[in-house]
Automatic annotation (TrEMBL):
Protein's pathway: Cell wall biogenesis; peptidoglycan biosynthesis
Claim: Nuclease is one of the keywords in the record: no
Lineage of source species: Bacteria, Bacillati, Bacillota, Bacilli, Lactobacillales
Active-site residues annotated for this sequence: R167, S217, E287
Swiss-Prot/TrEMBL catalytic activity: UDP-N-acetyl-alpha-D-muramate + NADP(+) = UDP-N-acetyl-3-O-(1-carboxyvinyl)-alpha-D-glucosamine + NADPH + H(+)
Top EC group: oxidoreductase
Enzyme nomenclature, EC number: 1.3.1.98
Cellular component, GO annotation: cytosol
Record GO biological process: cell division; cell wall organization; peptidoglycan biosynthetic process; regulation of cell shape
Record's protein name: UDP-N-acetylenolpyruvoylglucosamine reductase
Family: Belongs to the MurB family.
One Pfam family per UniProt: MurB_C
GO molecular function: FAD binding; UDP-N-acetylmuramate dehydrogenase activity
């Protein structure tokens, strides 16, 4: 399999804990790093011909891969990372880091993207999840994105077609790949943009447990509540299962403090959900994506 695609780096039975921000996760049967849209298309065609399942991982930052790993092909788009500026608009390929895109905006004196300066995901993942922080979301600056479908068609989707809502986009229900996205910004003052980014970077470093591996914000914010304080009020700050711990710095995060497994993470997430439901009658939904298979 993949013998006709020798130019594309493809690893076999590759441990995904080398790539996830939690440092957990089992192996992918195959892991590919395409360098162009043409190569992505070729990979999907090979999967179609061999009836092989496939999946795209972004920057694997807001993600938990179960310990059994992922069957079929995993595609990582980190080599598709070109960022281009035309006037007030920035177009970034899916594998470009969101943080890098915000700094390109800064270099061109463009404002509106400051909210994302500390979000560690890729552009593709950010669009897929409608990522946000500090009062801003991708939908606020989004113009359109190019999407590749399994049959090889590439379509341009507008903001309306994406139907963005809180941590949601329409393509979450579609088996397709974001290739690039275009964002509309405004001309601003470099020093003011930089000051705002510095402020948000400091806030993130002071409040979030960046010193440990984590998957970022674990839960969506429930209506009428803030997740971290809710978990803290339940007495769960510092709660540990295996090597996974509710962060003592910010209870909305689960950190890997001692060789945690994905199973540790999932068990701790489920325990938190159970306690919060019992104590406050609040249902916590996960923001982090949990994918892959259990260990057989």
């Amino acid at each position: 399999m993949f013998t006709s695609l020798k130019e594309i780096p493809i690893l076999k039975n590759e441990p995904l804990n080398k790539y996830t921000f939690t440092k957990t996760g089992g192996p992918a049967d195959f892991l590919a790093f395409p360098k162009s849209v043409t190569e992505v298309k070729a990979l999907l065609e090979e999967c179609r011909q061999n009836n092989l399942p496939w999946m795209v991982l972004g920057n694997a930052s807001n993600l938990i891969v179960r310990d059994g790993g992922i069957r079929g092909l995993v595609i990582m788009l980190e080599k598709l990372n070109h960022i281009e500026v035309k006037g007030n608009q920035i177009t970034s390929q899916a594998g470009a880091k969101l943080i890098d895109t915000t700094y390109v905006a800064l270099e061109h004196h463009l404002t509106g993207f400051e909210f994302a300066c500390g979000i560690p995901g890729s552009i593709g993942g950010a669009v897929f999840m409608n990522a946000g922080a500090y009062g801003g979301e991708i939908k606020d600056v989004f113009v359109s994105c190019e999407v590749l479908y399994p049959d090889g068609q590439i379509k341009t989707l507008s903001a309306k077609e994406m139907a963005f809502s809180y941590r949601h986009s329409a393509i979450q229900a579609q088996h397709c790949i974001v290739l690039s996205a275009t964002f509309d910004l405004q001309v601003g003052n470099y020093d003011e943009i930089k000051a705002k980014m510095d402020e948000l970077t400091h806030l993130r470093a002071s409040k979030q447990p960046l010193e440990y591996p984590s998957c970022g914000s674990v839960f969506k914010r429930p209506v009428g509540h803030y997740t971290g304080p809710l978990i803290e009020q339940a007495g769960l700050k510092g709660m540990t299962i295996g090597g996974a711990q509710v962060s003592e710095k910010h209870a909305g995060f689960i950190v890997n403090i001692n060789h945690a497994t994905a199973t540790d993470y999932v068990n701790l997430i489920q325990y938190i959900q159970k306690v919060i439901k019992e104590k406050f009658d609040v249902t916590l939904e996960t923001e982090v994506r949990i994918i892959g298979e259990e260990v057989q």
